[in-house]
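Input set for joint prediction.
Command: fold jointly, output tokens.
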Amino acid sequence: MNKPTFFELVQLNKSFGGLKAVNQLTFAVKEKEIFSIIGPNGAGKSTIFNCINGLYNPEQGQIKFKGEDLVGKRPDQIAKAGIARTFQNLELFAHMTTLDNILLGRHNSMKASILATVGLSFKRSKAAQEELAHRRKVEEIIDFLELESARDQFVSNLPYGKQKLVELGRALALEPDLLLLDEPAAGLTQEERNDMIFWIRDIRDLLGITVVLIEHNMQMVQNISDRILAINFGTQITVGTPEEVLNHPEVIKAYLGENIPSTH
Amino acid sequence: MLGQLIISSLVVGSIYALMALAMSITYKASEVPNFSQGEMAMLSTYVTFVLLSSFGLSFYPAILLTIGFAFLLGLILEFFFLRRAKNPTPLNLIVITIGFQLMLYGIAGWKWGSEQRQINLPFSESKVIVQNDVFALTELNLATLVIAFIVLLVIYLLIQKTKLGLAMKACQQNVNASKMNGISANRIMAISFGISSIVGAIAGVLVAPLLTLDPSMMWDPLLKGFAAAVLGGMKSLHGVVIGGLLLGLVENLFGFYISIEFKSVVAFAIIVLVLYFKPSGLFDKHYVRKV
Amino acid sequence: MRNLKTTYFEDLQLFKDGMHLFWSAALIIALFTLPFFVKTYYLTILNLMAVNVIVALGLNLLVGNTGQISLGHAGFVAIGAYTTVLLLKLGVPFLFAFVAAGLVSALFGILLGIPSLKLEGPYLAIATLAFGLAVTTLIGRMDFLGGRMGMNVPKLQVGWTGLKYDHSLYYIILSVTILAVIAIRNILRSRIGRAFQAIRDSDIAAAAIGIHLTRYKLYSFGLSALFAGAAGSLWALYLGFINPTLFSFILSINFLVIIVLGGLGSITGSIMGAVVLTYLNLQLENVVDIPLLGAALFKFSEVFMTTTGISNVSWVLTGFILILVVLYEPLGLYGLWIRTKIYWKRWPF
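tokens >
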């Protein structure tokens, strides 16, 4: 029996007024692979994520996740389908603590109704029991990302590197099947970037989550990607293994311009 | 009858348009709807009254001084209060304007009591200028329409044709870039509030003969002006003016043909309906935040 | 030494530690035994404060925690009040009338929430303002609701408790207030409350983690209206007579002042704001009677202002306090309280 492709974009088109941000884009992602999307600034990478996520509605094309088309669904429906994401410029809940931010990732797994939550302060209540169970799950994530020291701090007081981890933790708390990371290395120090490489690998190896990331940092891209998609002006240049893609002349031209001796 | 209705709609609508314009000028500059707009106008109108009655000035000098007072009042609000907010979120700034509104209302009531007074404009309410089969136009009506139109024109020219207007537009679009280009954003903000206060004051003086002068006279015009601004799209100057005129029309037509008691409520209801389909008003663009 | 937490449940429980429990219990006992020590007049002041607390808790949930705005909350209070009076007049027992008041109000809250879903800032403000206006205007036109003249509120049948009527009323209002505080506190600490705050902080991220924005915004409006309606029900009992002019735009502004003064998003803030503002309003009703200050104000009024208009000082003062709070302590009285606590903790450094 033919198992449907885990995740694929089919002929996706998205325009803003006269500008075609995504143009007939088609690619597929295999389960449990780490798939990177690279391209110069303005190539349309974040737009792709925003379309997948449900923030933008593409004019044409399909976004198929485990066989189901996601186009036209609301962002919360897409989250419930098993896709989580981080944002390029961080969209943390600024007035809440790290713990609360990550706990919010558990929102959908929790079932307590408003009426039930009125009894939260009573240990035997369903609401309290559920809250404690999910708190334990969140603590596992905090442990995994080494955020213990930041647990009760307001996220706006945290250094940038930790804030990125909180957003990652929040996305992991959804227990997604597919994780979209929008420039996970941006703004990090070299050390933090090395840690991030390990974490992304662990997310795939230990948690079994498929990862698609947008990235500019070629060191990270080379290191962790199974396959890379290079795009420019909203369309595909090429897709393949890191060696294939990073030495592709068109890719080099997109980043560096013409008349540059090839690195090969 | 319809002709007469339209005239009165336009007159009332012009007042709403002026209030809406005043609202919009400050909203465009600061992203804060100024709830004290009405009270500022009311206080300025009292100043005119005092100048006319106690000091015996004639009309045009009194108006000039009032304009100065109004401008100052706007500056005070911006400079001493809004600018000093430690955490200038929209809600906090709105609350400051509400606080200012309460203060001005209290000061007016304290100083002049709640008895209604008459202000004597050189435009008579009873002297009819134009009379034909369709409508009758009093001197006051004509003056209101003309003055309102002049104010709108002046503001339009100010924004579109002067350096100040250009600076105001620049500050609205990108404060930091404006500052880096040598524009004192603080000064522009203060001036915006000053100008808006003047527009409001003129509306107040025009409305006083119709409503009589007492501390709460501007509550309804403020509300309607705000609603008109929202209807037209708060950041679009021509939008809010059209909003004001439309509101005046809808309100008066409904009030005459269907029910005078419900006319305010229906006017608001229609605005809410419009907002449902156009969340940023009729003429404004709806911006979605980019992530 | 400060107690360190050892279980996750300690984050959820009502009382942080033994001291907290002790003082809270002491306060509650004091409030319950008050009728035996003080004149009825003071009980009525507490009743008024309690009603304001309940409205403030609901409004703060909507404005402070979910980041919305409401300039028409008096409309929900009105709906609660009128529903209760109507049902009482029909002979319905108070408990049912009370619950109905809350639910009907909540329903209207959800109805108001629907057009508000796409609106923000001044646009939302106008929509809620329109609602408040519509409610009072429509009530004023309906004769079976007493029209503009208003309606008398039937007295409760509490003779069977053996207590004086005023005391019974006080206990009812006090109990409801305490329950309201506990309920709001638990809701805010749960996934529901977190979702509300997520919507406030970043609705894009909230949706991205699976929060159905529409549903939760409606929940917030509904809950907020529920509290206002319940408070309206109690307020009607307190007043004995209701008419549409009570539920004006001024009242809505009053509620907004309470939560800003007290501290947005904070339960303690709602309580502090309600208590302080109710007290302030009462004091300012008779400005001249305030010792020292009253006489000075009177003298000042004779010279520069009018003495007939002296009651307007309350407006000036309220407005001024509002501005001061926003300028210097945006977290309100709650912020001041926290700052004071921290100062004394660190003293003498």
